[in-house]
Amino acid sequence: MSAQATSGRAKGRKARAETPWWERRAADIDRLIARYPKSRSALMGLLWMAQEERGWVSPEDMEFIGQRLGVSRAYVESTCSFYSLYHRKPAGRYTITVCGNIMCGLSGGEALTRHLEQRLGVKVGETTPDGLFTLLVTGECVAACDGAPALQINEEYFHKVTPERADQIVQALRNGANLVELSERIGLTAPGAVWEAGERA
Amino acid sequence: MKYEKVLTKGIGEVDLTRIENYEAQGGYQALRKALTGMTPADVHAEVKKANLRGRGGAGFPAGVKWGFLPEDGRPRYLCCNADESEPGTFNNRMLIEYNPHLLIEGILLAAYAVRAARSFIYIRGEFRKGYRVLMDAIEQARAKGYVGDRILGTDYSQEIVVHRGAGAYICGEETGLLSSLEGGRGEPRNKPPFPAVAGLYGMPTVINNVETLCNVPFIISRGADWFLSIGTEKSPGTKLFSVSGAVNRPGNYELPLGITLRELIDVAGGMRPGSKLKAVQPGGASSPVLLPEHLDIPLDFDSVQQAGSILGTAGVMVFDQNVCMVRTALYYADFFSHESCGQCTPCREGTAWTARLLRKIERGEGTREDIEILKSLRTTMSGTTICLLSDFSITYLQSVLKHFADEFEAHIQGHACLAERPREVRSA
After folding, report:
1. DSSP state of A187
2. From start to end of B108-150, where are the E strands?
3. How far apart (Å, rounded) are the C-alpha atoms in residues A197 and B269?
4. Does the distance separating the beta carbons of B126 and A143 come in below 8 Å?
5. Which of A151, B78, B194, B331 could disulfide-link A102, Cβ–Cβ 3.0 to 4.6 Å?
6. Which candidate from A102, A142, A200 shows the least CB-CB separation from B328?
7. What is the model's pTM?
8. For residue range B392-410, what is the model confidence (pLDDT) as tens digits?
9. Could you give the CA distance from residue B30 to residue B222 in angstroms, rounded to a whole number?
10. What is the pLDDT of residues A156-187, one digit of tens each?
């Protein structure tokens, strides 16, 4: 009860101090809606925008999106809840999602998940106390089977992740590394072996 | 024999995300050719003649699909299905990230042929990099006059809207994709009406896979006869085979349709040291197993079907003696249970119970009756739902129940696993 009241007050202060994202990004929102023949198609894009800005999609965000698109908040929430990449409660700054489908699973993905649980001190579905990492396992194949076992951090790829490599990635992010650069630098493998096929066969 | 690379030409050698590099190897010449000397009907006729079969899994001819649009004056839409999420499949992702202009050119040509008012790329949420690459490539193309109003000074205008999904396998099903693109839950719709008649916003709509559309520029620039000279008579062209599992070099290999499974495994570096081929899935989660005796079947749409499986997405998963087939079935059961949208009872309940029974069997707690129930799903989960997810969720399971009955039996009898190095059984 008291914790709730505190966080409510904190939120109130924050709201007064800061302009909501939908005001700051009004031009982006207009541009997004204008891309579609019907405005409701912008709903998923607005949910993504909310998540970019806040780290998750809050009830206020859904309220705003519903009003902006002329649909109920319940409709927005129903849509949002259908998709696994939207967070409907606060998540860590980095969501680490280990691929739990067959090829990653058979290539060490399950051991990788257990290693990350130990390393981060959380179970799958939980967030580290410092708010930095949320650990998830997805049942959906992330389309990186040639780089198995693979994981994604906020939808950026890391291929062939050994436990040592996982430690390296976590440490780099703790030290403030840029996620996209990190993925490009150490996360990706070459695009399959397409050119070798031509030479060989 | 050396095979010519078509869709993958330049990948790994030059940075094709830069438009000048794409143009330097002939890029956007097909668009120029079409807009300056061919009518939309000409482009459509060439693709139809080429018998370009859909690369998304069904193998349905794209030219025929385009012909289903009614001539009734309503606006038409083109959707590129870039929701690649079929287990074992990663070729669309490579085309998007490493050759985005080829896809853009293919979309521009297809939209011209079907006279689409606007084009959409539905890209899965996990492909954040692909989204960035496409958005950047579209702006490069716009700056050169290939996208937007009055393309190359002609009367043809086209916008391409990239729409990010957010994690739902079912949005790869074409009507689920449309529901999602309209800003709702990605729930499939009953067919008929088919998207060609009542698709996006109720308008005539064509939905094609990434790789399908990437073939169109070559069919236009080099002609249908050239295309028909590659591959087999009924499955012309090349295919990007995504090979993963117990081979030395997993990856995407662009090869003519109709090469044999043996050749493909050979091209992918052969079996890993110590690995013996046990089974192969030639095209994603729902493709029934092929066995070592199938090594010489040609990998084209019809031959694979004759062998009892499907080419599907050509996501070729190679399993060796260390893989427990009961466990493979459980991976898919968990997957389909999670990805069922929940609209239809046979699918929502059936996929969940399939996973529960398989988990029980895998742990060594199953009974013969459980196996009989799994076998009976063929009648209760097929043909009883809005879309095919339910049907597809059990096809692989049925094939392993048949071909690897001994493994199921061993799990039931002695809590044992016949795989040579089974993973620890009780972690789930």
Report:
1. I
2. 118-123
3. 9
4. yes
5. B331
6. A102
7. 0.94
8. 999 999 999 999 999 999 9
9. 9
10. 999 999 999 999 999 999 999 999 999 998 88
